[in-house]
Each structure stands twice: as C-alpha cells, then as structure tokens.
Specification:
The structure holds two protein chains of two kinds. By secondary structure, chain A is mainly β. Chain A contains no helices and eleven strands. Chain A has one domain: Jelly Rolls (Sandwich). By secondary structure, chain B is mostly beta strands. Chain B has no helices and ten strands. The chains are: A mainly beta, B mainly beta. Strand 1 of chain A pairs antiparallel with strand 1 of chain B, so a sheet runs across the interface.
Chain lengths: 144, 135
C-alpha cells in the first residue's frame, strides 16, 4: 500500500552547470516505515472565489501524524493564480500549471489549507484545482 | 531567460484504483512566461534543536519564488518542523507550522517571500538539510 512522490528539477541554463535533482519519497506514517493508508484520492474543484475557501479542513487529531498534500493549479492562463494559506498565513501563489507537495501538520483545527482565486474576475473563468491528501490516523474524515 | 522545470510523479495504491499523476511546470516570474533566473542551493548541518531561520526573505529579491527542502536522513524517526511566519522582531519567531519533514521526505511549494522559512530539528545530533530556492 505504498504512496511515492518523486520530484525532478531540471535546468540546462539557470546556472553555469546543468541542474538535475531527483528525489523519491515513500510516504510513511510519522516516525515509522509503515506506509500511509488513507487518501482522499485525486479531487477537482473549480474556484472562482477571491476570498479564501477551505480546501482541506484540519483536524487536531492529525497533529503529530503524517499527512502529505498535493495541489495543482490547472488553469492555462499564466496570469491566474491561487493564493495558498494555512491558518491565515500565506504560503505562496500557485500560478497556472504550478503544483506543490508538502507535509501538513494540522497543529490545531485552525490549520486549514485554504485557497483563493485572488485575481479571478468574471472574464477570467474559473480556476480548476486538483488536489489529493495522503494521511494516517483512525477516524479522520477529511473534508467529509 | 533560463528554463527550469519541476516535475512531480505521484503514485499510490491506497485506493482500489491506483492513482498515478505526473505534472511538469516551468518556473516563471509571477504571471508571465518569462523564466526565473536565480537559484540558491544550500546544504546545512544543524546540531541543536533550536529553531533557526533557514531561508530569509532578504535572500530573495522578488515576491514569487519556489522552494525545495529535502531531509536526506535515512532515519525515519528524525524530522524537521518547517514553519513560516513573521520575520523580524527577534526572528526566528515563526509559529505557523507547515509540516514535519521526516527522513527521506522532501517538499516543494511556492513562496510569496513575505516571511522567513524556519526549521527546527527533532534531535540535537547532526541533522543535514538541503534546500534550493528558485526566484
């Protein structure tokens, strides 16, 4: 029941020598070699709100347990971005095509992962967002 | 301008129908198709459980960057707490914990360069952290 995530960073010309970094992580329970065993699966929403919307609701039971979050902005207009926040702390902006993969601590129930289509207008169309959560714990009904 | 690509290959057989996702993004300046042109690549060894500033806003001259952090440890019990928050005022004072990066884990995220990214090792024995910032 394995979940693996591989990142590959490549550039032929951002430095004097080529950049080629590749790393695979096997997603396991906190401090263990046991695989994560729960997932939301891949989900898709269309975002048109310029205000923050809860994408993943934190559960304090998840604190100290392992959780990995994948989010991608599937828009094709390079100017359209999502603002990503955790507990009202802005992390960064995901522009069209950008993705992120992070561990998520859920330190308390306020540690929601929220997204906003900050520069959405009626003329820009919705921003499609795909995301998945892989996690552990026994009775965590994420986004239920 | 340089071309830098970040690819994720994600696979999981947790669910009955396996998940397999691959996506590549080209790293551009905010809202454009112009490639980022700066990169920092650092390896540090931390020898205490004190929180430290890992990546400060002053090291990046833009308001849009991408961050890769890797915990190369082979010990699954060792982790870094990764936090982000208000820089200054006696920084590191960051309090919003993003997540814990256990041995073998990596993370990749966009960074708005408003606040420092801090790190707290779980043990005081030497722990190595690797990071790259593209801006």
């Amino acid at each position: 029941m394995a979940t693996t995530a591989t990142i590959t960073l490549t550039s032929a010309d951002i430095a004097g020598d080529p950049v080629n970094v590749s790393k695979t992580a096997t997603c396991t329970k906190a401090g263990a070699t046991t695989d994560l065993d729960q997932s939301t699966g891949l989900q898709r929403v269309h975002l048109r709100s310029t205000a923050n919307k809860v994408l993943l609701a934190a559960n304090a039971e998840g604190n100290d347990l392992a959780a990995k979050v994948y989010i991608i902005n599937k828009a094709t207009d390079p100017t359209l971005y999502l603002t990503i926040t955790i507990n009202a702390q802005t992390i960064g902006k995901l522009y069209a095509g950008d993705w992120m993969f992070i561990p998520w601590s859920q330190t308390d129930t306020a540690a929601n992962i929220e997204v906003a289509a900050t520069n959405h207008t009626a003329g820009t169309g919705d921003i499609p967002v795909e995301y998945a959560l892989f996690h552990e714990d026994t009775d965590f009904l994420t986004n239920a | 301008m340089p071309t830098t690509n970040a690819t994720i290959a994600l696979s999981s057989d947790i669910t009955d129908n396996a998940l397999s996702v691959t996506n590549t993004t080209t790293l551009n300046t905010a809202g454009t198709t112009v490639g980022l042109d700066a990169m920092t690549s650092v390896t540090k060894v931390l020898s205490s459980t004190n929180q430290v500033d890992l990546i400060t806003t002053g090291t990046v001259s833009t308001t849009h960057a991408y961050v890769y952090i890797n915990n190369p440890s082979t010990d699954n019990t060792e982790f870094f707490k990764i936090t982000i928050g208000a820089a200054g005022g006696g920084s590191p004072t960051d309090t919003e914990e993003i997540g814990r990066l256990y041995g073998g884990d990596w993370m990749w995220f966009p960074w708005d360069v408003d606040d420092d990214i801090c790190i707290t090792p779980s043990v005081a024995t030497d722990m190595t952290v690797e990071f790259q910032v593209f801006s």
